[in-house]
Amino acid sequence: MIQETIKAVKEAEAKAQQKIKDASVRAQSIISEAEREAENIIRKAETAAGEQAASDMKAAEERAHSTENTVVGQAEEELAALKKKAESKREQAIQATVPKKEVKIEKKVLLDPAWIDAENIENEDYANYIYN
To answer: Is the pTM value of this prediction over 0.70?
Structure first.
């Protein structure tokens, strides 16, 4: 009877060892599959993050171009207004220097050298001479 018990124990032990080996193989298989799935999940997450980053970058570029166009448009409008104001000021300056009435000055200028004393500068007889 002891022999039978030993035999039964050895058989149970062999079955247990086989179950342990089978469980170990199965556990290793599950771990390998989990690692592959984790790698796939990581790749998908990286791809999704890359696509999201590209989409965000494109949206940011579009906003930047839109803002740039708006600023350029405003600057062009301001420049046009400043040019118009400058032209108006130029016209005002021209009008300010142009005589309102035509004034004719009839004066005979004598260019022949003549001696004029300082005492006679105000004298009407010498008024038509140009002198320094």
So the answer is: no
